[in-house]
Amino acid sequence: MNEYLRKIEEGIQAQSFARMMGLHAEDAGEGFAVISCEKREDLLQQTGMMHGGVTGAVCEAACGYAALTVLPDGQSLIGVEYKINFLRGITTDKVIAKATVIKQGRKLLVIEADAFNEGTDKIAAKMLMTGTPVES
Predict the structure, then answer these.
(1) Dihedral (Cα; 85, 54, 117, 119), 10-degree rounding
(2) What's the pLDDT tens digit per position in 102-134?
(3) Most exposed residue of 3, 6, 7, 42, measured as fewest CB within 10 angstroms of its CB?
(4) Contacts of 134 (CB under 8 A, 6+ apart)
(5) Strand pairing partners for 97?
(6) Quick check: 33 and 8 in contact, CB under 8 A?
(7) Where are the alpha helices (DSSP H) in the chain?
(8) How do beta strands 109-117 and 123-135 pair?
(9) What is the spatial distance between Cα 101 and Cα 66, in angstroms, rounded to a whole number?
(10) What contacts 24+ positions apart, CB below 8 Å, involve 18-23?
């Protein structure tokens, strides 16, 4: 496990919400993170697809953890704003969000994330997030 993945897994374990959702770090490197969430009955909406709020939360987590890979030790990210577009439903057993830092400033970072159904390369949701670094 690389240092980035270790930091992200520690972050997931430190957050009750991330643990409750069952988030998992799939991959990470400088400026990017891949986070997943497995399908569970309590995370679905009425048609059996992953609830949009879950997809959004996985994208937001991926953005935050991508930012963590470029921030100094002792800092984390607090979201300031995000926008998400849902392009198709999450119908597989896992949603996977891939996030990349696209602008790192001293006071604001901009990160984008794409969510996918497991096993596909078609984007199911696209998020653009702005966050600010804070002391952890």
Answers:
(1) 140
(2) 999 999 999 999 999 999 999 999 999 999 999
(3) 42
(4) 75, 76, 77, 78
(5) 35, 115
(6) yes
(7) 3-14, 16-21, 52-68
(8) antiparallel
(9) 6
(10) 18/61, 21/54, 21/57, 21/58, 23/58, 23/61
Torsion of CA 86, 6, 14, 36, to 10 degrees: 20
Place of tokens 């643990």: 19
User: How many CB atoms neighbour CB 68 within 10 A?
Assistant: 22
Given the structure tokens 């997931």, which residue do they identify? Answer: 12
- pLDDT, one tens digit per residue, over 77-87 is 999 999 999 99
How many other CB atoms are there within 10 angstroms of residue 51's CB atom? 15
Q: HSE-up of 62 (CA within 13 Å, CB side)? A: 31
Across the beta sheet with 94-104, what order do the strands follow?
Answer: 24-29, 32-38, 94-104, 109-117, 123-135, 75-86
Give how far Cα 63 sits from Cα of 45, 46, 55, 109, Å: 24, 27, 12, 10
- Give the domains, in start order, of the chain with CATH numbers: 3-135 (3.10.129.10)
